Amino acid sequence: MKKIRNIILILLFALLAWLSVPFNVLVLGSDARPWQPIKGSRSDAIIVIKVIPLLAKIKMISIPRDTYTDVPCEKGGKVDKINHSYAFGGRECTIKAVEELLGTKINYSVVFRFDDVITLTDIMGGVDIVANHSFTQDHETFKEGEKYNIKGARALAYTRHRKTDSAFKRDERQRQVMQSIAKKLVSPTGWGYVPGVYSYMQEKMDISFNPIKGISALPAILINKTNFEQHEIKGDGKMIKGIWYFIPYEDSLNDARKEFKVWF
């Protein structure tokens, strides 16, 4: 009996140790429309989420889609826009490109179409955001600083707009919506939506994630929004052979590498 108890304690300790290890999740938004195959599409949103269970902290960073970097699966290891990596080799190619750019390990991944935002936010009865910019997109109007509950086409309009500000502000809006979705699902008022959201994601989205590991992110999501650290890769645009690219500043890229480093 004592031997069995010791084995159980060892297994429990191993599980807790595994749950405490930081991990990265790559979230990719495909530009494919509902009637188009995801294969061969480009990633319109590239977001890395780092979960640090012991500190109850979550870090998020958006990688500009036009970032000039090595795309390992392109013929000859071509340097190209990072969002082209999905078209050339799907999720695995983009994972490799992001790992090389940030010098880190991607443990899990989620691939979605932007139209999935419509369904997910509809299932949840909407999510709350504070608009980071004043604009009108697809007949949907937002005023900076105002709080909104958005769902369906309105949520999609909020995450896709970039004509009147910048790709960086759009990236921030995408992170806002993802953060709001996560917070609502783990709050008592949102528990009833979990089965529907999980079922939809399993059926319609390309997911590589361990739900048990996700448990370790709950404290960070529950505590408060200050534990969602927002990071940014800064840089400049540059024309190379007639094509516009985003060139990251080396010091900004090094900061991102430090913040999102995981070893395994």
Provide the structure class. Answer: alpha+beta
**CATH homologous superfamily?**
LCP protein
Number of strands: 14
Portion in strands: 25-35%
First-to-last CA distance? 35 Å
Radius of gyration: 19 Å
Indicate the CATH class.
Alpha Beta
Provide the number of structural domains: 1
* Main β-sheet description: 6 strands, mixed
In the CATH hierarchy, the architecture is 3-Layer(aba) Sandwich
Mean pLDDT: 88
Secondary-structure element series: HEEEEEHEHEEEEHHHEHHEEEH
- Helix fraction? 40-55%
Oligomer: single chain
| SS summary, helix count | 9
Low-confidence stretches: none
Secondary structure blueprint with pairings:
Blueprint: H1 2-20, E1 23-30, E2 43-52, E3 57-62, E4 68-70, E5 79-81, H2 84-102, E6 108-113, H3 115-123, E7 127-130, E8 135-137, E9 140-142, E10 147-150, H4 152-160, H5 167-186, H6 194-204, E11 206-208, H7 211-214, H8 218-223, E12 228-232, E13 235-240, E14 243-248, H9 250-259
Parallel strand pairs: 1-6, 3-12
Antiparallel strand pairs: 1-2, 2-3, 4-5, 6-11, 7-10, 8-9, 13-14
